[in-house]
């Protein structure tokens, strides 16, 4: 049975969500060298390792900001496994060249595996949302972006110099269209949890 108790390393997640530079520096100092070493030992270079780390940091930031990240395992194992899987996926994409994997740092920690799986699903959902959001018209994107960042629809209406009624109706229509496209997309069913 998986232990769902929040791990004491949750402060790393909260630090990322709050864009705390001390926490972010701590992550880079404590955990990134292990990732860089792993990628360099497995057909990668320093730049590729930094790209993987950056992608994972952005993913964790987005998931933490969405309040969808409760750490149930050590941050070190979770972060490393996310980076490792990201790198292995990069290698699969570019599989036309020979690849040697030195996998002495594998993790069979169940809570870590579960956390990584949740984060990967979050990333897939985010990518689907972003792809469908880009299909919306410019006005829809603008209304939705402002409604995500401002506290009230009155503020959105004021910011866009339109009436409150217009903004409410437009947001409703745009959200409906976005939701429909997401639900109709072929990958949606596999992302449902």
How would you describe the overall organization of this protein?
It is globular, with a radius of gyration of 20 Å. Helix 1 (10-17) crosses helix 4, helix 3 packs parallel to helix 5 (75-93) and helix 8 (153-160) packs across helix 9 (164-184). The chain has helices at residues 10-17, 21-30, 32-40, 46-65, 75-93, 110-135, 138-149, 153-160, 164-184, 188-191. It is 71% helix and 0% strand. The chain has ten helices and no strands. It is mainly alpha-helical and 193 residues long. The protein starts with 9 loop residues before the first helix and ends with a helix.
Query: What is the beta-strand fraction?
Result: under 5%
Order of helices and strands: HHHHHHHHHH
Average residue-wise pLDDT? 82
Q: The biggest beta sheet, please?
A: none
Helical content, roughly?
over 70%
Assign an overall shape.
Answer: globular
Terminal-residue CA separation = 19 Å
Number of strands: 0
**Low confidence ranges:** none
The chain-level structural class is: mainly alpha
Q: What's the helix count?
A: 10
CA-based gyration radius? 20 Å
């Amino acid at each position: 049975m998986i232990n769902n108790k929040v791990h004491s390393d949750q402060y790393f997640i909260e630090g990322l969500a709050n864009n705390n530079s001390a926490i972010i520096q701590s992550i880079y100092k404590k955990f990134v060298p292990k990732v860089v070493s792993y990628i360099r030992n497995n057909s990668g270079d320093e730049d590729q390792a930094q790209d993987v780390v950056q992608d994972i940091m952005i993913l964790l930031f987005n998931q933490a900001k969405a309040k969808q990240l409760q750490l149930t395992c050590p941050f070190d194992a979770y972060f490393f496994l996310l980076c490792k899987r990201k790198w292995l996926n990069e290698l699969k994409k570019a599989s036309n060249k020979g690849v040697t994997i030195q996998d002495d740092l594998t993790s069979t920690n169940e809570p870590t595996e579960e956390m990584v799986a949740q984060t990967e699903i979050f990333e897939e959902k985010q990518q689907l949302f972003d792809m469908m959001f880009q299909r919306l018209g410019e006005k829809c994107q603008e209304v939705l972006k402002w409604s995500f960042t401002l506290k009230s629809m009155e503020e959105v209406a004021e910011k866009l110099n339109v009436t409150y009624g217009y903004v409410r109706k437009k947001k409703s229509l745009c959200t409906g269209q976005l939701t429909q496209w997401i639900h109709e997309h072929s990958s949606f069913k596999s992302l449902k949890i």
